[in-house]
Amino acid sequence: MTAASGPSTPPFVMIPCDNRVIGGHLYYALGRKYADAVRLASDCLPLIVPCGGASEFLPYLELSDGILLTGSPANVHPSHFGQDVRDPALPLDEERDSVTLPLVHLAVAHGIPLLAICRGLQEINVAMGGSLHQAIHEVPGKTDHRESTSSDLDEQYGPAHEVDITPGSGLEQIVGGRCVTVNSLHGQGIDVLAPGLVAEAVAPDHIIEAVRVAAHPGFSLGVQWHPEWKVLENPVSVRIFRAFGDACRAYQTGRGRADRAPTLPRAA
User: Rounded to whole angstroms, how far apart are CA atoms 223 and 119?
Assistant: First the structure.
């Protein structure tokens, strides 16, 4: 391949897995809808990564042209934002925390395109120093953002409420409008917005539904809803994943110098 011909393969998007126990066995788990959205709407290749320590995930990151932080049944451990566990019945995934929270900082430091969905948005906020409501439905003045588990999947992922998009924001440029209708399948959400994050959209009850990292030199977007669900059937979702894919291709074109190889910051 000559320099003029450009990359010969699609960009790789790093997707950290969940850690789950299924039938008594430990599994690395990833919902296929996320990998398929990367393939079909971003035109990138999903690089599915087990959540090990930093020495394990850094080599994957060096291969990657983007990062996708997915939704999950498990929550970020509240110790990361100075709280105790409110409901011990809800699942946690501390192994995933140990990978995704550092990844947020690495993405910002190295300009790696970053797209985050549901738990992923919450991970960005926590990693940058913000906090979460552990039970939005118990907060006065807030509505219940959880799905009905008795409904079928199409109903659970169906339209739930509108979000108002910040005028002049990157999200407005991506979706081409100031108001979109989204699904809603989350019990937790942003309480205190982290320093350095910019709210890109809010729900009618003022829960923040989208953010970007102000210091990120390229593409960074976290959304609280699930654009990956049947992505090709939703024009707004297609625009989000297509914009992410375009950013990954731009990063792929510009990478390769030795100083772009990501490294963990040294401990203080």
Answer: 9
pLDDT tens digit string along 126-180?
999 999 999 999 999 999 899 999 999 999 999 999 999 999 999 999 999 999 9
To the nearest 10°, report the CA torsion of 53, 101, 244, 192.
Answer: 170
Strand partners, 14: 47, 67
- What is the C-alpha to C-alpha distance for residues 71 and 225, in angstroms, rounded to an integer? 9
Give me the residue spans of the domains in the chain.
9-260
Going 80 to 262 to 265 to 128, the CA torsion angle's sign is negative
CATH number of 9-260: 3.40.50.880
Q: Token pair of 183, please? A: 């699904």
0.90 exceeded by the pTM?
yes
How would you label 181-197 residue by residue, b for 16+ Cβ within 10 Å and e otherwise? ebbbbbbbbbbebbebb
What the block records as the tokens of 182 is 């989204």
pLDDT at 257 over 70: no
- HSE-CB of 9 using CA atoms within 13 angstroms: 8
Return the structure tokens found at 135: 């039970």
* Catalytic residue numbers, as ranges: 118, 226, 228
